[in-house]
Amino acid sequence: MKSISRNNIVLIANEDSENLAVKLSSKLRVDFTKMKRGQFADGEIFHIFPNDIAGRDLIIIGTTHNDASQQELLDLIDGGRYWNARSINVVIPFLGYSTMERAKPNSGDIPKGITRVRQIFRAHPDYVFFVDLHSEAVLHAHSGNVSTFHIQTESLFVEYINELGLQDYVLVSPDYGRSKWVAGMASKLGCPHTAADKDRYAKDQTMVNQVSSVVKNKNVIIFDDMIRTGSSIVQTAHRCLDVGAKSILVMATHLVLCGNAIERFVEIGIERVLGTDTYPYIREDELVGTISVAPLISTVLEKKLKMT
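RE: above sequence
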């Protein structure tokens, strides 16, 4: 790929990603350009590029956490092509339907984790960056004409944990699927790790059966890529406390936190929930905190897009 001059970049975002895009603009030393949006009387939504983008290099920040954001991202990519942008580079901080990357045989399920990403690839962006994917299978859901990169956030969490000065702690994965990632984190931190034994018996229902006694008399940090209802986290915390854990902290990249997840965390005595700002409009309080992925994304974009 040819190098990109900062002076030629137009940084935009779908509406729910604007807060993160503003943070990123500061790190990249590039102005953020806010799209003009409006709605017709019949409900149809229109977008207008406020500046001429012909020959410019577009960077689009676009979470796809709901149908409206997915469609808006597609409109921005297609609009960039229509108005002859030089290149279109997309950052997806949070990928909707990311846990639905495959369908069971004869189920009739639509694996939207794959089909939604294919929609994005078919809009012909030049480069697509994803942050902490549930599965890397989506990286290959194109015909070879799109460059992709998986941005992983472990360095942010390693730095945060080191700054905590926590003693006698152990990392715990709520299932074996995430255990390799957690093991890598533990290696960098020089601490023990283990994985809970979890079974999934419905789309949103899991059961954690047991966890290793290595957590006894330890401060436990439960790690996952995403927290939705918090069911797996709560059950894992229960098992750790049953074995004799001293305290429970929870960390995950994507804090969806739907339903009564927060209330359940408070009830069981989880001391802190930390994530990133990939999911829009997280409400921070005494329990929930975030660290921004903007510096990490900035570093990756500067290197991969050969920014000058």
